[in-house]
Amino acid sequence: MSEETLIRFEKLDDFRWQIPKTGGMRVPGIIYADERMMTHIRTDKSPQQVANVAHLPGIVKYSLAMPDIHWGYGFPIGGVAATDVEGGVISPGGVGYDINCGCRLIATNLHLDEVRPRIRELVGALFRSIPSGVGSTGSLKLSKPEEKKMLQVGARWAIEHGYGIQEDLDSTEEGGFMAGANPDVVSQRAYERGKDQLGTLGSGNHFLEVGYVDEVYEPEIAESMGLFLNQATVIIHSGSRGFGYQICDDFLAIMTREYSKLGIELPDKQLACAYIDSALGREYLSGMACAVNYAYTNREVLTHWTRETFERVFGVGPKQLGMRLVYDLGHNVARREKHVVNGKQMELCVHRKGAARAFPKGDERVPVQYRNVGQPVLIPGDMGTHSYLLVGTERALEETFGSTCHGAGRLMSRKQAMRDAKGRSVAKELEDKGIFVMSASRATLAEEMPEAYKDVSNVVDVVHKAGISRKVARTAPIGVIKG
Amino acid sequence: MRRESPKRGRRLPLPEKVGRPIGTKKGERGYRRSSPIAELAEVLSNDFTYVKPPYELIDHTADLGMRVRGESLENLFENAGLALFDILTDVTLVRRHSRSEISLKAESVEDLFVAWLRELLYLFYVRKKLFCAFQIIKFKETSLAAVCWGEQYDSQRHILLTEIKAVTYHELSITRTQSGWEAQAIFDV
Predict the structure, then answer these.
(1) What is the pLDDT of residues A203-260, one digit of tens each?
(2) pLDDT tens-digit series, residues A25-64
(3) Cβ of B126 and A44 within 8 Å?
(4) Which of B63, B118, B122 sits opposite A73 (nearest CB)?
(5) Coil/strand/helix, residue A25
(6) Measured between beta carbons, which residues in chain B are less than 8 angstroms from residue A419?
(7) Are A328 and A370 spatial neighbours (Cβ–Cβ below 8 Å)?
(8) Class of domain A10-482
(9) What per-residue confidence (pLDDT) applies to B63?
């Protein structure tokens, strides 16, 4: 949309722009961006969405947006909002349809020189063993009691059934499991939609990427994470598939009917919410936790098949391959977390819609092995460019409830991308850059072409310079599977 | 969606003049009379052929929207169903082999619109149905009954174009225009 929004901005410093509290806003908004990004953001509807989120009952401090902010529905993508557990609300739109969509970085013992010559074979094999594409279905069929168990224990279910190793859980956010999941609040439709999708990548922006560490910014931290230059890596980006979409959809349908009866006034129906301390609020949170656990399990199963494929292609055992999960984190989640607000410890519900958690070193919520460096944060770029590994900082905890950006953020609409890609072969262009891509759909490749996204390095530079996370290393892709 | 079993003694042979869904053969599923709604629809469906519905995509940075038009509210809903499947698949490849019935209730016409599209998405993702024709049989602002024709998704013959995760309430609108009705909806894709 091209018209200038009526939102007023106050520049706080080079990377922070405040939207003053007006009308029904309960708190001001803050967007993390540089001057150049702001010229684009100003013309977008996303600042209005930052202001809309500030209307949520119980929101504390600020309605925040990360530099990868773009127009979403209800919440902007890149939005962060924390509500007081006492008297505040939970908004399913602040989590999104793809609940616990996230990504993970896997390190290997392989060197770029060993992988590059076999990338076609490797990507082809991965493409065959990892179901992807619109409505893709997998080979895992769980009985209902088995599925319920998986929803309650998360990624541990995968480990117990031979799809992964125990160490993976130590490197997955919250141990690959969100507490409080209650499978009984999940609708029949969500079960039906998620039934045959466990262990599938999906479509759209989901991907599996083979790459290598091409730059190290913090050698000591990188080394402590077992990362070295030219080391082959894998990134997996997927979520809770149809199961999560349906849970969000089900609760939104109820909440859009109910919220106005509770006396809550919202500028956008898609922000529909329920009090956290209400039956409906609690039900959503326990349903959401099921989807969170589904997504952790999904990425764990995908990792297992990735490992198997590497073993087959390179003809070596798991020990030699050393495929080790560096970290797995979600970027579409709401979590109950303790934070200090105005010198007071509070229990908050932190909504991160297209935003990642970024806790600092020393924080007890960071896995032990990373507690002296900070929580790893993986920021994937578009399929033609770099991805970044960062760590969380103290400043993030102070300013953004321990949150940072989650990706590059779209620049072009899908329609515009399709138009721009007409008559071109995105796959061929990427191949010329040394990136071999396989996709279930040409349309997806066009929609997801590199130019459709903001430059991830600019996005990462902003969070780095603003001090809400710190660059550790960068990877570059050589092979990609798109849905 | 519930297919009622035909009542005993009411299973009359269909006279030839009452059209059956185009592309179906005598005796095929979808031909059988199953409920009063479907009977009415069969009579009405004589001159039914697929034409691309009047709609356009809305440019939305992250997602996808549609703006669709119709002469009446009923027609608007029918066109919205067609537009949805036009985004999901190549509708010209979908044959009219079977029939599904949908009855819905909602609190407002906007809610009904979302509920309608949600229902169609559900039938697509879970029942693996692709539709190429719709007929709204009964319509009030807060309820509808419809018959949808199409067939089971077959990966060998059909093309899936875009995955629509859900229909959102964001910037949802249904408005009266000079020539009829217009609705817009944003999808999460």
Answers:
(1) 888 999 999 999 999 999 999 999 999 999 999 999 999 999 999 999 999 999 999 9
(2) 999 999 999 999 999 999 889 999 999 999 999 999 999 9
(3) no
(4) B63
(5) coil
(6) none
(7) no
(8) alpha beta
(9) 78
Domain ranges of chain A: 10-482
Among candidates B59, B115, B160 on the partner chain, residue whose Cβ is nearest the Cβ of A415 = B59
Q: Has residue B21 got a pLDDT over 60?
A: no
pLDDT band at A136 (very low <50, low <70, confident <90, very high): confident
The confidence band for A1, taking pLDDT boundaries of 50, 70 and 90, is very low
Among chain A residues, CA nearest to B125: A193
| DSSP assignments along A143-209, one per residue | -HHHHHHHHHHTHHHHHHTTSS-HHHHHTBGGGG--TT--GGGS-HHHHHHHTTTTT---STT-EEE
Is the per-residue pLDDT at A410 higher than 90? no
User: What torsion, rounded to 10 degrees, do the Cα atoms A325, A98, A297, A206 define?
Assistant: -50
Q: Give A324-351 as a DSSP string.
A: EEEEEEESEEEEEEEEEETTEEEEEEEE
Instruction: Report the candidate in B169, B160, B173 with the shortest Cα–Cα distance to residue B188.
Output: B169
Locate the chain A residue with the closest alpha carbon to B188.
A97
Cα Rg, chain A, nearest whole Å? 21
Burial environment of residue A381 by CB neighbours within 10 A (0 to 12, 13 to 18, 19 or more): buried
Rounded to two decimals, the pTM is 0.90
Residues of chain B contacting A414 with CB distance shorter than 8 Å: 60, 63-64, 189
A-chain residues near B116 (CB < 8 A): none
How many Å apart are CA A92 and CA A399, to the nearest integer?
23
d(C-alpha B54, C-alpha B91), whole Å = 14
For residue A359, give how far its alpha carbon lies from the nearest alpha carbon of chain B (Å): 27
ipTM (interface predicted TM)? 0.85
**B155 close contact with A: CB closer than 8 A:** no
Strand partners, A479: A210, A436
Q: Using CB atoms, which residue from A74, A202, A415 is nearest to B57?
A: A415
* Chain A residues with at least one Cβ partner in B under 8 Å: 1, 44, 46, 70-74, 77, 93, 96-98, 133-135, 189, 192-193, 202-204, 242, 245, 248-249, 252-253, 256-257, 268-270, 272, 410-416, 441, 443, 483
CATH H superfamily, domain B55-188:
Archease domain (3.55.10.10)
CA contacts within 13 A on the Cβ side of A52: 26
Distance of alpha carbon A75 from alpha carbon A96, whole angstroms: 8
Task: Say if the Cβ atoms of A193 and B122 lie within 8 Å.
Answer: yes
Q: Which residues of B touch A256 (CB under 8 A)?
A: 111, 169
Q: What is the pLDDT of residue A2?
A: 39
Rounded alpha-carbon distances, angstroms, from residue A402 to A78, A163, A169: 14, 31, 21
Please check whether residue B56 touches A, CB under 8 A: no
What pLDDT, on the 0 to 100 scale, is given for residue A3?
Answer: 41
Residues of chain A with C-beta less than 8 angstroms from the C-beta of B161: 134, 441, 443
Identify the pLDDT of residue B77: 98
Handedness of CA A68, A70, A73, A75 (dihedral sign): positive
Contact residues for A4 (Cβ-Cβ < 8 A; gap 6+): A42, A43
Catalytic residue numbers of A, as ranges: 406
Phi/psi class of residue A6: alpha, beta or left (left: φ > 0; alpha: ψ in -120 to 50)?
A: alpha
Mean pLDDT estimate for chain A: 95
Sequence ranges of the domains in chain B:
55-188
| Location of structure tokens 């349908």 | A253
Q: Which of B16, B49, B58 is nearest to B171 (CA)?
A: B58
